[in-house]
């Protein structure tokens, strides 16, 4: 851990159902404990009161607020952390951190991304970038197209041929993903996926 860090913001997993994504609660708790062992102050944002990481004594300061760019920026303004950890809150934290980075919020307040870089997160979450990265190494992958409209999605599905698989980008727990045996099923799933994701992989 960098020795010049005085305070680090950890993005928690946000609102989850009981029994869902416990690994993020566990990993986030361990990250907070590691910060404490290193003598680094910790700030946690997580609206879920039913987690270990929001328990008393785990983080120095806890904000029970949504893990969204608006609220996280307000916390950054108030707390002025030196760094931020994005990889311990699952998809919600990854999406929020990516947006803060792309909008220049982290740079504006001098907050360093610790651990997994935003570029690495984007390479794994953006389906088009991910496929291009895999193409750079000798890794066989199924034929696919990352698309951002229904028109392009239908074109891609027809070119590949049914059945096709749909995988939404930046989606929680595989939401908006599935196998479509025909065009009717594809249209239904793709339209649903585009309601919460700007990009899908066909």
UniProtKB/TrEMBL annotation:
EC number: 6.3.4.16
GO biological process terms, semicolon-separated: glutamine metabolic process
Top enzyme class: ligase
Organism: Phocaeicola dorei
Domain spans labelled ATP-grasp: 131-176
GO molecular function annotation: ATP binding; carbamoyl-phosphate synthase (ammonia) activity; carbamoyl-phosphate synthase (glutamine-hydrolyzing) activity; metal ion binding
One Pfam match: CPSase_L_D1
Gene Ontology CC: cytoplasm
UniProt keyword ATP-binding present: yes
Keyword entries, A-Z: ATP-binding, Ligase, Nucleotide-binding
Recorded catalytic activity of this chain's protein: hydrogencarbonate + NH4(+) + 2 ATP = carbamoyl phosphate + 2 ADP + phosphate + 2 H(+)
Residues in the signal sequence: none
Family recorded in the similarity comment: Belongs to the CarB family.
Name of the protein in its database record: carbamoyl-phosphate synthase (ammonia)
InterPro entries, A to Z: ATP-grasp, CPAse_ATP-bd, CPSase_dom, CPSase_preATP-grasp, PreATP-grasp_dom_sf
């Amino acid at each position: 851990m960098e020795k010049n860090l005085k305070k680090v913001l950890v993005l928690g997993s946000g609102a989850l159902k009981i029994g869902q994504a416990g690994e993020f609660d566990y990993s986030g708790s361990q990250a907070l404990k590691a910060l404490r062992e290193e003598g680094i102050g910790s700030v946690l944002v997580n609206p879920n009161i039913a987690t270990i990481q929001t328990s008393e004594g785990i983080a120095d300061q806890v904000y029970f607020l949504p893990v969204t760019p608006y609220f996280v920026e307000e916390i950054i303004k108030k707390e002025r952390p030196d760094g931020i950890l994005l990889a311990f809150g699952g998809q919600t934290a990854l999406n929020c951190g990516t947006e803060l980075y792309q909008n220049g919020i982290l740079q504006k307040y001098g907050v360093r991304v610790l651990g997994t870089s935003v570029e690495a997160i984007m390479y794994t979450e953006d389906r088009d970038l991910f496929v291009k990265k895999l193409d750079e190494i000798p890794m066989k992958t199924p034929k696919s197209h990352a698309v951002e409209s229904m028109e392009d999605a239908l074109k891609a599905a027809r070119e590949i041929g049914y059945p096709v698989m749909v995988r939404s980008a930046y989606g929680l727990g595989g939401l908006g993903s599935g196998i479509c045996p025909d065009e009717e099923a594809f249209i239904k799933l793709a339209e649903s996926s585009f309601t919460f994701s700007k990009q899908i992989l066909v």
